[in-house]
Amino acid sequence: MRLLPTRFQPQSQSFVRWRSVVASPDWRQTVADFQRKANDTSVSLTTKDVENVVRVCTQSDRTREALDAIRRGDKRGVAAPLSSHVQICCSWARKRQADRALAIMPDLRARFGDQFQIVTKNQSSVYDPLLSVFKSKGDWRNTHAAIAQMHELGVTPTLRAFRVLMLTAAKARRKDSLITTVEFVEKKFPDVWTDVATLTAMCQALVDVGEYRRVMEIYRKLDDEWVNQEASTMLLNQFLLAAVRNGNTNNEKKRSSKSLSNFQQAMSIFDRMRESRKAAPDDFTFATYMMELEKHGKWTQVLDLFNTMLDTQARNQNVLSNDTKKPVINALSCSAVIRALHKLHEASQEENNAEDEAGVSSNSTRKSKSQQRKLKQDLLVVLKQLPTVDLRNIGHASTLIDTLDEFKLFTAARQTFKRVLDEGVIQKTPWRLKDGFEIDLHTFSRGVAKCAVVSAFDENTRAQQGISDVSLAGNAPLQDLRIITGVGRRSHTFMKPVLKQEIVDLLTKSCRPPLWPSSHPTNPGVLLVRHNALRKWLKKGGAIRYF
Fold it and tell me: Which Gene3D superfamilies does the record cross-reference, listed alphabetically (predicted)?
């Protein structure tokens, strides 16, 4: 927390002004300057002055200060523009006072009249900034209320208003409202079939609520020529995702019958994207298609696709352009390739074993070593991509770390976890508590949890390095280390947590010397490493061999 300087009697006026500029946030200084100017009648006040202070205040959600600036401007005969009033509405909405924001709009309609209507006749609506706030919050109810208010004020809702309504309804799991809105848009807006933004929002919302069949119906309705020429990557990604998921059903017979046709549909969409200039595949496209190949056990095709991704990424990097393209290889595709490489290696090993048993091959050992070398070389190609992989999605990052841990690529797992920490991806989750002597692994996957424990032990070891042997043997500032694993409440192994045993194995089998944690006497979801055991372990130069 930054403390404000205490009040004191300055020696000069110039010194006061210098202090206020340095110690105060921008909005405070802007408000102070505006108030001085508004109070000084010898200085002219302009609309630009009012507009500027309202913009700065609303960006910091200082709504009352923004309203005060408008009142001071009115006293000087300077009216704030319509855009400033809309910014104040957005500020109220961000502060969870959407009713107050919507209540202002009829007053603005009465006050600005024709100007209010002129703005709404353009492609953008006066309601658009407010709708953006509702969209960011997933506020379906107030989006619906805003559209109803548009009708009351004689304002024709734009397609963007319905796009926001569809997306927020999907986020709120209001499937009935979403379907009703989709049908209304299809009926009232004939041009929707060539509106990329609206089609994308519509399909994204339908995918989010599991209406994959309806998305594929939309795909089949579209003109092929228009799709090839105008469709975007994001739109075709929704069709690809719907095709992949359309076969997901609890009925085994239906799933098997649909699986092949849906896979062929996904292949068709993917091939179309590869040939398109406007809808070129991105990292989402490649990862989605790759995981579909993996689901069907097409391991060789997974590797072929990865080679295509490497070529595409190299080509994108060589193109001289101001626009830096996002890497097409992401965490999910790296995970899929690592699994595919090991699956193919396992198949080769089984084939070698079968030949040995049949007495067919005499050089199986040499062949096995050659296959092992090839696996290491192929894995190295994948691991070289990890430093550029986007890890901002914690779910994708967790999948990658889990895969690296599963196949004993521990060094890469630790490096990836370190990047997750350094980039602040899990910063919002306070998992290291009480000076590092409590490790909360709730919501962590298996690989991430193990990396977190290793990281915490490393931090504790470094913190103890400055303590002398005398104090280490006596009263070193050590505590019992608590590792909270949970009891598997949200997993399929309720009261039989997998994570707890994984951490026990990590401490007993990978630690040198071994650490033997004990269960908490009253909480089965907590492991304890007693401070005496931890002190002895540190004194012996203890380390976790997770590399």
Answer: Tetratricopeptide repeat domain (1.25.40.10)
319-364 residue pLDDT tens: 655 556 789 999 999 999 999 999 999 998 888 777 777 665 557 6
How remote is the C-alpha of 365 from its chain's centroid? 46
Contact 511, 475 (CB under 8 A): no
Q: Report the DSSP beta bridge partners of residue 511.
A: 544
Distance CA 423, CA 434 (A): 22
From its phi and psi, is residue 61 left (phi > 0), alpha (psi between -120 and 50) or beta?
left
Question: What whole-number distance in Å separates Cα of residue 31 and Cα of residue 53?
Answer: 6
- CA nearest neighbour of 390 among 323, 446, 329: 329
Q: Render 286-352 in DSSP notation, one character per residue.
A: HHHHHHHHHHTT-HHHHHHHHHHHHHHHHHHHHS--SSPPPPS--HHHHHHHHHHHHHHHHHHHHHH
What residue type is 37 in one-letter code? Answer: K
SS (HEC) of 426-493? CCCCCCEEHHHCEEECCCCCHHHHHHHHHHHHHHHHHHCCCCCHHHHHCCCCCCCEEEECCCCCCCCC
pTM for the model stands at: 0.83
Question: Distance from CA of residue 535 to its chain's centroid?
Answer: 40
Q: Are 518 and 465 in contact (CB under 8 A)?
A: no
d(CA 202, CA 465): 58
Neighbours of 62 (CB within 10 A): 21
Looking at residue 26, what is its pLDDT?
83
User: Is the alpha carbon torsion for 338, 339, 345, 348 positive or negative?
Assistant: negative
- Compute the distance between CA of residue 56 and CA of residue 25 in angstroms, rounded to an integer: 11
The domain made up of 426-544 has a fold known as: Ribosomal Protein S8; Chain: A, domain 1 (3.30.1370)
Rounded (10°) angle between helices 394-406 and 331-358: 20
pLDDT at residue 150 in the model: 92
The answer to whether the CB of 125 falls within 8 A of the CB of 160 is yes
pLDDT at position 145 is 96
